[in-house]
Amino acid sequence: MGSIDRYIFRTTLASFAVVLVSLTGVIWITQALRGIDLMTSQGQTILTFLGITGLVIPALILIISPIALMISISHTLNKLATDSEIIVMNAAGYSPLRLFLPFFYATCVVSLIVAFIAAYLAPDGLRRIKQWDAEITADVLTNILQPGRFARLDQDLTIRIRERQPGGVLGGIFVDDRRDPKERSTIIADRGTILRNDSGSYLVLEDGHLGRFEAGKREPVLVAFRSYAFDMSQFSNRGRDVSLGIRERYLWELLSPPPDDPVFKQLPGQFRAELHDRFLSPIYPFAFSVLTFAFLGTPRTTRQSRGFAITCAVLTVFGLRMAGFACSVLTVKTPSAALVQYLMLVTATAAGMFIIVRGIVIDAPASLVEAINRTVEGMTRLFGRPATA
After folding, report:
1. What is this structure's pTM?
2. HSE-up (13 A, CA, CB side) for residue 313
3. Do 151 and 126 lie in a common domain?
């Protein structure tokens, strides 16, 4: 690349990085707020919260990258046009196709990043989230049972502890168990400890009372005990394999899933749709960059408005992405919808390249400009202030 190409290449990638970080940060904050219960209800630290919510960032980058590239190319072209650099380069013999080369190189870098994220990084982050969440759930007796709080471990099971004492002893334990429709059990114990062995997890209660209210009987059954083991094994995932969803699979796992995979047997259409989405992810940056340059890359003087071209570029890219999402949904039940999505991207890219090669200037029709001007003049006369004497 020459000096001009390097200048445009660096400017585009620098703008892309700024836009990508900004958009990803905003969307990540909205997603992270949904997981705030990790610290409130499950007693996790801020580092655990940031770690789990941060693992979703690659999946966000996968979607945001083509949009950030479009914005960065628009910004770079607008900067070049404002400084009349496109006009000067065109006068020096730079054709629109030649000017597009540094943007193409920048697109290749973005596409390679997106391909790596789609094939490995995004699914790896999502499966780490699931494994981390399983570990948190496995340690439910330690993390969810917080002093002074009623922790609902199940729809009909509530546990509260008064305090945590040295040595892992829990003080002042209350248990309300309604899981059996035929009876309700209420347990109050002075203290208890957590016991884990090969047979499961237990909350060993000491010096307490057990009240059992059986259906159809008016009087409860009250029992005083010195030691009582309350089974908590069903709330522990320790030792159980984490079942991976479709989005947590690597690209090569989607290409050749095991024939006996229960998820693949149950949802083959979603496997197919996810596989095509992974293949199409690196193609979207090329389509977006070509379309954006086709609308904004042709030489214009500073007197010519670029508002119509920018609006057309945004609407075209937005429509192409929305159509892609629709095709992804349809691919689950209709395999031919994936082919439509490929053809759509190829057609859009080919149309954009045709405009670039021919140097076609996309501008608002004269009739539309006149109509807008008349409307603006009419609004000015209607709402304008009368001249003061």
Report:
1. 0.71
2. 31
3. no
